[in-house]
Amino acid sequence: MAITVLLSFTACNAQIKNAKTESVKIFGNCEMCETTIEKAGNLKKIAKVDWNKDTKMATITYDAKKTNQDEILKRIALSGYDSEKFLAPNDVYAKLPECCHYERKAQTVAKVETPKKDTAKTEVKEDHSAHSHSAMTEAKQDIPQLKAVFDNYFAVKDALVKTDGNASSAKAKELLTAINAVKMDKLTTEEHTVWMKVMKDLAFDAEHIADTKDASHQRDHFMSLSKNMYALMKVSKTETPTYYQFCPMANDGKGANWLSKENAVKNPYYGSQMLSCGKTVETIK
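The structure corresponding to this sequence follows.
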């Protein structure tokens, strides 16, 4: 068993570049807790969490150039589990299965950095719901956190309009970098809620588009990428309108959507074959 765990740990380190490993206490009770904690903390090739229900200790291995311990612990807190640095929102903790209701420590303190010019840190004690809602609302970023994500999405879309698999792959790599660079504590409450739901899928699709030069395969992932990007765009304030467009021929006749900065239709699923096939179905302002 020890050899198996060691080999697994070694394999994890081999997959994650710039690997940094740390141990931190995360509160929970059972194997169900273990599943939720590890699922919330894990990011493919970026972060791996191994939690022990007996010791309550988690071994966290992550790419230090793409994420950090705080970002991982925040995701775990938002799934309902306290650590010694961050408390789960009270309403999320309350919705955990009865067997997962671990004893909460009143002395736990969550520290979050606000974007104020004096770079002061705000300490939020037992009522972590204040951190997850009002504190994040006040922490609206001076530079929109999601702008780079949207800009790189549009760059991928433009490459697919030209059926340029090489360019689409390159732009998807930049999109993946932008996704991993998002500072969750600087998102608004609405953005944060949606981001936690779509973050992993966005990264998954961006990574697959980046890993191939085949425009057909890229377009398969662009469909789901666009669906999740739309959900994120709906809760984000942008300086200019964004157009949600639809092609009835894509996806084997089932239809597929995409986002565009232009009202004029330029179809990323067919390119020059059917460049103007589609229509704008919604204008997001």
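The longest strand covers residues 19-25.
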